Amino acid sequence: MAEISITQMHDWKDNVDLELEAPQGISEEIVELISKHKNEPEWMLQKRLHCLKLFKEMKMPAWGPSLEKLDMQNIKYFQVPNSKKNAKSWEELPEEIKKTFEKLGIPEAEKKALSGAGAQYESTILYHNLKKEWEEKGIIFEDMDAALKKYPEIVKEYFMTCVPPTLHKFAALHGAVWSGGTFIYVPKKVKLTTPLQAYFRMNAERGGQFEHTLIIVDEEAEMHYVEGCSAPQYTTSSLHAGCVEVIVKKNARARYSSVENWSRNTFNLNTKRAIVEENGIMEWIGGNIGSGCTMLYPCTILKGDRSRTEHIAIAFAGKGQNQDTGAKVYHVGKNTSSHVTSKSISIDGGITSYRGIIHSSKQASNVKSAVECDALMIDNKSQSNTYPVIKVENDSTQIAHEATVGRISPEKIFYITSRGLSEEEAKKLIVSGFIEPITKQLPLEYAVELNKLIDLEMEGSLG
């Protein structure tokens, strides 16, 4: 990616004309407006209205970080930029929006290292393109709104099956107001050798973004999908409640990587789930840097025998941030395995928490699972918490859970500073080494960005 400064990633705001801006608040009228504007089939409108009914009936989560500052009626749930939709060339976009994605480095990354790229601004995908060589092999890479029109039966079969709207209040909200997102289908035996990427930008004050990502990896196929996101800083709250659903078929493999860098006025209440069939592999790689409040727990359901999953994540919390993250794995098939690696850094009063579930069902014999939680606190003002849940319903399961919490030792600082670095440089070097197991799993440009963002977040906080 191109050089990205902390100002670019957080604080610049665009002056973009809107084709449509729904009034603040959530209601049947807003839901009907969204569906009508998109010219959706009747079944999707009815699904949206059903989700809205569930949303109104369900209570706010009573666990985790407080959501009392989130005013649901103060959010703008649907905003459409005045721009060509689904452009195949960056030059087709309005100058202001094009500059935004150039600052984020998306066009440059597409040229160098991607099989295809998509870019969403507010509620709408504005750019989407797949390289011809992969299109010829039958890969489908569309935005969700286009997929609903082009592949209605596939969308109807899988939409909100991994993440049912009954799961929690924000899953129901998502089902009512979702807009944009990504649809990917990888045919049998096709192995995608370079990643697909989508980037989501939320620009407006009191904005809401609710993109839906649906990925289907057919038998013996492989793919890697990368998501990035950002928003400018405001004094009022914004809401991100996206949804990711991944279907991994027999003998298939999927990797989902993301670096979420929402601004600190954003509530990041995202839901991600995968269902994995026989001998399938699901990998989650995640970095959570921004947002004032995050509640994010990627989930894998190991449905098929000998299926497996790996969750690797880093969370960073600075002043005023509460990062409540983790992983959930449900072992259903026999001889399944999972490995969860969670690392967190808290500084300047930030709060990080690991919240996870490992569930081995009655019929899931010979399960193997390991969870490693490592927390690094830079000062005595910060917090780190661990809330693991382990539920085993058979006698053949092997589960290991290990958690460590520590501070940067004076001995390490002394050793590094004796080699000519300042104390602040020494601390940054130690932090870089601490997160290295995560960054080495990311595409190079994202690994560089993650390291740089953490360095910049730490500047001025180290004493």
Key features of this structure:
single chain; 463 residues; alpha/beta; disordered N terminus; ten-stranded mixed beta sheet
Strand residue content = 35-45%
**Helix-strand makeup class:** alpha/beta
Low-confidence stretches: 1-12
What is the count of DSSP helices, taking H or I runs of 4+ residues? Answer: 13
Span of the ends, CA to CA:
31 Å
Helix content: 10-25%
Largest sheet: 14 strands, mixed
Average pLDDT taken over every residue: 85
Radius of gyration: 21 Å
3D shape: globular
How many individual domains? Answer: 3
The tally of strands reads 26
Task: Tell me what you see in this structure.
This protein is α/β, with parallel strands linked by helices and 463 residues long. It folds into 3 domains: 17-61 and 72-296, no CATH class; 303-407, no CATH class; 408-463, no CATH class. The protein contains 13 helices and 26 strands. It has helices at residues 6-10, 28-38, 42-57, 95-103, 106-113, 132-135, 144-150, 152-158, 169-177, 410-417, 423-434, 436-439, 444-458; strands spanning 18-21, 79-81, 116-121, 124-130, 140-143, 181-186, 196-201, 208-209, 212-217, 222-230, 238-240, 243-248, 253-261, 266-268, 271-276, 281-288, 293-296, 299-302, 308-317, 322-325, 328-331, 337-346, 351-360, 368-377, 383-392, 398-407. The strands form 3 sheets. Strands 5, 6, 8, 9, 11, 12, 14, 15, 17, 18, 20, 21, 23 and 25 form a 14-stranded mixed beta sheet that branches. A hairpin with a 2-residue loop joins β3 and β4 (124-130). α2 (28-38) runs antiparallel to α3, α3 (42-57) runs antiparallel to α9 (169-177) and α7 (144-150) crosses α8 (152-158). The longest helix has 16 residues, at 42-57.
